[in-house]
Amino acid sequence: MKEVKSPKKPLIYYYSIVLLIILLFNILVTPMLSRSQVVEVDYGTFMDMIEEEDVGAVQVEDTRILFTDKEGTHVYQTGPMEDPTLTERLHSAGAKFERVVEEPASPIWSFLLTFVLPILIFVGLGQYMNKKLMEQAGGKNSLSFGMGKSSAKVYVQSTKGIRFSDVAGEDEAKESLQEIVDYLHSPQKYTEAGASMPKGILLVGPPGTGKTMLAKAVAGEAGVPFFSISGSEFVEMFVGMGASKVRDLFKQAKEKAPCIVFIDEIDAIGQKRNSGGGYGGNDEREQTLNQLLTEMDGFEENTGVIILAATNRPESLDPALTRPGRFDRRVPVELPDLAGREAILKVHAKKIKTAEDVDFRTIARMAAGASGAELANIINEAALRAVRGGRIIVTEADLEESIEVVIAGYQKKNAVLSDREKKVVAYHEIGHALVAARQTNSAPVQKITIIPRTSGALGYTMQVETGDKYLMTQEEIENKIATYTGGRAAEEVAFGQITTGASNDIEQATKLARAMITRYGMSEDFDMVAMETVQNQYLGGDASLTCSPETQKEIDRKVVELVKAQHEKAKKILEDNREKLDALAKFLYEKETITGEEFMEILTGGEEK
Ligand code: ADP
Ligand code: ZN
């Protein structure tokens, strides 16, 4: 939770101060100034001074008499009296005297002076201060007249430079985004076909993996304006400002369509509502989020405004944001694998001079677990090291050294696998895939990678989409359970040791086995009797048992039996395919990634088919 900032003072506050200063000046300072020069005396003193011929110049006004002494060093003032002989006496005392008749000020002038001028000064000062304050705030927050103007920056020029080719690796993400580029190029193609682009696309991945870069590259490839704003910027403002910023942002975007709107750190406003509860900033955030949802619902599909948003905490997002018609497409932007890291290193190495014998693959291998931003940093660190050594050519030693500097910085926050762990994870993941492949005789996976994920999973298996399947046979479910146990089974077969890495598999296998018995009627003992009913099928689907405690015991026993049988089956499959298991695991361990094709090639290689 961000600390709650003290609210910024409204403009009226500054105006009040100016007003106060002007008033004080009028009441206190001005009279003091004039009083210090003019000495107030009574009429008697005036008469005495005339008698003593100590009066120089006299000015008789309607409301007062101003006079000086003979030398003219002091100015005195006294009230006028009924004194018909004054003129005579002044004359005989040798004073210079005159009567000044004050022109009554024209009412328009006095009005202008007393009312209009102060207001003008007042507004002028306010404007000036506002400008000053805006400059101080880096133009971020305008205080009065630009109230609510969005600070989304338009990068029409700068994104021209960024292309997909500048983003190394991340091929899958680029592929998904290519469609958006195509749409922005020729929207009519899509409208004619009646297809509508998703309004919002969520780029999900750990920090520094190039999400911002990808968003800019989409704009760059399509040659459209790029508006970017960070979710946290919305939250830092006055109450109600966030919502009006959102409104303004979309207004601008619609005017500039086709265009890309990029919202970085969307979790700052898009967190689940009512999750924190009681924080001061909540109301503001909710208002902002609601405004965002309203805007997204409000504009028609195919307006040409595509909203890209980035987050590294997708699970914390409010479900309302990911509903269809909003951010309904999700593009994973994961940490780069070995090949990806090499490519990123090479892209950034173009900016520096490297020795010819630098082997980027070795460097990439050493920097396992590093993000794109960290790799860029490694290159920069190496260049700095070279400069420190008085060289301009960066050597491999510089790079290796800087890996340590940079990795030491991030090792704590990122899970970097040890060598041994990497081996275990490779066997585990191949175990799943191999069991699956042997049961169905087809490629079970699209891709396996063993780069630690933000979700905490150490490996990642992209399952082949078999299309929507509404019906599954008993055998298929059993095979699926066997596949879940395959990871653990591989560890047993290869190392004779088991790890904690299978907790999620265990959960999944148990769920399936349980459902087979309690809901699908797939056990002989219970036949087609429902033992569980599912509530809230669309909201997670909590199951509640509807049977006696004795039966529950029986179910538990059955579940264990079922999983155990499948576990044994998986182990048998792996033992029978031990050589393939080793070959596949070795491949995955070294490359960190294996595609379905590569997998099948190794699996069927050398087999007569
Ligand atoms: P994110 O938005 O995911 O936090 P950024 O897009 O801001 O990450 O990336 C930060 C920096 O890291 C980029 O400016 C770039 O220098 C570097 N970088 C990250 N990923 C890549 C990549 N795939 N290819 C090249 N550079 C990258
Ligand atoms: Zn597993």
Q: How many structural domains are formed by the residues?
A: 5
Q: Which structural class matches the secondary elements?
A: alpha/beta
CATH architecture of the largest domain: Up-down Bundle
The backbone outline, from C-alpha atoms, is elongated
- The protein's oligomeric status is single chain
| Small molecules (ligands, ions, cofactors) in the structure | adenosine-5'-diphosphate, zinc ion
What is the helical fraction, as a range of percent?
Answer: 40-55%
Mean pLDDT across every amino acid position = 78
CATH topology-level fold name of the largest domain: Methane Monooxygenase Hydroxylase, Chain G, domain 1
In total, the number of strands is 16
Largest sheet: 6 strands, mixed
